[in-house]
Amino acid sequence: MKAAIIGAGSTYTPELIEGFIERAERLHFDSIALMDIDEDALALVGGLAERQLREGGFKGEVILTTDRSRSLEGASFVFAQVRPGKMAGRILDEKIPLKYGLLGQETTGAGGFMQALRTLPVIMDFVSDMKRLSESDAWLINFSNPSGIIAEAVLNLTDANMVGLCNCPINMIKGIADVLDTYDFDYQYVGLNHLSWITSVIKHGETENIVEKLAGKADTSMKNNPVAHLDPSLLSAVPYVPSSYLNYYYMRSEQVQLCLDAEKCRGEICVEIEGKLREQYADPNLKIKPPELAQRGGALYSTAALSAAESIACDKRELHVVAAKNNGAVPFMDDTDVVEVLCELSKNEIKPQPVTVYNEYIIGLMRAVKAYEKLAVRAAIEGDRDIALAALLAHPLVGDIAKAKPLLDEMLEANKENLPKFYK
Question: Which terminus of the chain is more exposed, N or C, with fewer CB under 10 A?
């Protein structure tokens, strides 16, 4: 098999490569293509990736290329981690909304919306190339953000095989396992990407749902968002283990103020982290993933990606939390809505597992954000300002025309060079 990594100049790549090495016996690749449009980043990060692979015993072909077609040709799995606009775009996404008293965040709210406008056309373009050049049964495993909106577009507008992934679910499950000191439990997980809850936890051999006892105790925090104290009354009203991204919905004013008060936005912090990582990557004697990469926020990234690929390639039918078409699993969402739930992954299909534990708050918030996601897809694909404004108005974290219209105008202008759909 051949693997292609699109966006291989990312500082996350050594984390992904570690997963290839750890699973080499069960998930055997003969060729690994590392592709990026940034030749310098590719040489730097790709050089470390190749040293890692050789140190780990990989004897196949390693291709470093800026030619997307070459990387995709004959691929069985395509791993995507692209960021059009790079970190400069992310910093704009975080800072501009704050001028209007709105959340600045790379995947949630207005910031995530702008990332969707930049990223979706690029993803759709290379999915077209993938369908033409890769194996007929090739799978796309996408980590590019905003992951849920990208999955909504690809799974509904193309016939590509795709797994929409995020390391948030696997870290939430680890948080519960750390409290229980075991992974010996069944659970239900429901939501959209970065808008999700674990609603049921039942230890094997028992019948009691103990999720309420775990809410507030399980550490589900991610590097990309501030840790927040969850008020007991909140956990009584919505008695589940939430993704830490729900802090932005639960405590909107507080989270905006934290962003306003911060000396640097998360994007600026990441630029500093990446600068230090690149200095290490340049060392020709470095042949393993440096521990400092954990500061970047990619915990268990390779575990999520490569375990999903292994379940598909080996037809293991394992259960993983991924973004997939609903197909009746979440009864209050449309069948074509892409949701983030437990799914059985096999060689030929992704099968979402039925969700039975939820409440009216989850129903309302998921439906509202899904309406926003659908509008965001249309706006990105069509380059339509009216639809873009409607998307911001639909989002629970925006919803104010007096803020949404000038915000949209400013963000579109600031991203002009990366928005060919809007500036033909």
Answer: C
Q: What is the pTM of this model?
A: 0.96
Contact 345, 356 (CB under 8 A): no
Amino acid identity of residue 176, one-letter, is I
- Please state the separation of Cα 388 from the chain's center in Å: 22
Residue 318: exposed, middle, or buried by beta-carbon count in 10 A (0-12, 13-18, 19+)?
Answer: middle
Closest CA to 5 of 128, 140, 116, 160: 140
Alpha helices of 24-139 — where are they, by DSSP H? 39-55, 68-72, 86-95, 109-133
Q: What is the DSSP letter of 353?
A: P
Cα separation, 141 vs 159, in Å, equals 14
The tally of CA atoms less than 13 A away on the side-chain side of residue 221 is 10
> Residue length, the chain?
424
Bond before 146 cis per omega within 30 degrees? yes
Give the whole-angstrom CA distance, residue 144 versus residue 410.
24
Taking only the tens place, the pLDDT of each residue in 184-231 is 999 999 999 999 999 999 999 999 999 999 998 988 887 777 667 888
Burial of 136 (0-12, 13-18, 19+ CB in 10 A): exposed
245 is catalytic: yes
